[in-house]
């Protein structure tokens, strides 16, 4: 895994006190649009998608292997666009999207005000520990 990506995900994992494997895929808007349409029935590109592997019941025995937390897919096109829109660096936007995706893999969501406050507070805290601010 690329050093930047690893650094961000390790900080998030440390904060949540979780261990496991994460797959990260950087794509363009066309590819994430197709994934968004296929898996979420949303016909437009998005910035980040998370596919958690730890939801629901597990029918497999507990092997001595790292837990596969899931996959994070990030649109680099959308990240560039949002970095310009929010007037911050591409590095900051990519870090935000990695942390955001990682939190989703670990059960956090922003479907209501309380969940949004908790999730975005954690994002800011994790990014802050890395010196990545708005």
TrEMBL record:
Its cofactor is Zn(2+). It comes from the Bacteria. PROSITE patterns: UPF0054. Zn(2+) binds at residues 100, 104, 110. Single strand-specific metallo-endoribonuclease involved in late-stage 70S ribosome quality control and in maturation of the 3' terminus of the 16S rRNA. NCBIfam families: rRNA maturation RNase YbeY. Belongs to the endoribonuclease YbeY family. This is Endoribonuclease YbeY. It comes from Alicyclobacillus fastidiosus.
